[in-house]
Every structure is written in structure tokens, then in C-alpha cells.
Amino acid sequence: MSKIPVLYSYWRSSCSWRVRIDFLKINPFGKVPAFVHNDVIFVESLAILEYLEENFSDRSPLLPKDSTERAKVRAIIIADIQPIQNIGVLKYINDNFDGQEVSKIWAKRWIESGFQKLEKMLHMTAGSYCFGDSITLADVCLVPQVYNAQRFGVNLENFPTIKRINEALLTVPAIMKSHPDRQPDAQLNL
After folding, report:
1. Does the pLDDT at position 173 exceed 70?
2. Domain 67-177 belongs to what architecture?
3. Domain-by-domain residue ranges, the chain?
4. Which strands form 40-43's sheet, in the order they lie side by side?
5. In which element (H, E) is residue 141 found?
6. Above 80 in pLDDT, residue 151?
């Protein structure tokens, strides 16, 4: 394996229908993302982000130095939204409970519930971004959550702080470049 970090990804964080045999050698779960650095394979987005933060934070740290503030940023990240509406859960609902419409209702319900809690939390922590005026790991995680919320028809007008922060983040060049719709294999309107 190469000493150069390699990120294997798919714009919607599931490549189960397009996994190559070689990829399964890297990650037996067949899920993306997978990140290879110094011959070590990392899976799961948050674990990869934490590893990058701990090993390459000299440029633009995404977590505060203070442990209390780091815990607050991590609490924003795990605001009870993503696990309930991840693609594996939605696929199960879709396959076992009357199709795609039920999974959309499920996702929308749990995203809205999570956003209600997150909106309250952000009232206590937000500045320009989720935690003050610097981009943190919470912001990196917020953009894909808002993207999914929009996909499932969540009205962002009900969440003005989330909407404002997301709009600010979408003007940041690195975030614009990494947006799901801008990935080479993006399939719009899915």
C-alpha cells in the first residue's frame, strides 16, 4: 500500500450496489468511506475525521484545544440525527415496509426531531458557525445532514440557525468543493 493517504468514497456514503472486489479487500463491510494511511485502513466518517484531526491538525484544527469545548463540539455532531436515517436503516425500511415512501417519512420525521434539538443546542454555541466563529468538526458534519434533510423534504425555515450556518458554510471553498452534488459520481435528484 502507498504511504500517500487515499480516501475511498461515494457521494452518498453507500456503495453497496457498486462495490468492487478490490474494495472489499480494503473494507470487508463494503461501506464507504474508507481511508488508507501508512498501510492502516480506517472506516466510518467520524473515525476518519478524528484521525485526520489528531494527526494533521496543524493547518486548520477542527476541534478546540480545550477538552470541555471539544466535548461540546462532539455533542453537536452526535445530535441524534445521522444514525437513525443512515442508508442502511432506510434500505431496510424500504425493503421491508412498503417501499420508498415509508423510508422517506421515517427519515424526515427523525431528521426534524434531531434538528429541533440541534437548533436549541446551536442557540447556546453558535457564532458564524456551529461553535463560535471558526469552522469545527461540527460544521463539517452539519453540511451533509442538511443536504439529507433537503433530500427528504425538511423545511429549513423551521430551523433558522441551522439554515443560516449551512448557508455560511456553503460559501467556504473547501466545503463547496466537497459538497455531495459536486462529486464526480453524483447522481442528482435521487
Report:
1. yes
2. Up-down Bundle (1.20)
3. 67-177
4. 6-8, 34-37, 40-43
5. helix 137-151
6. yes
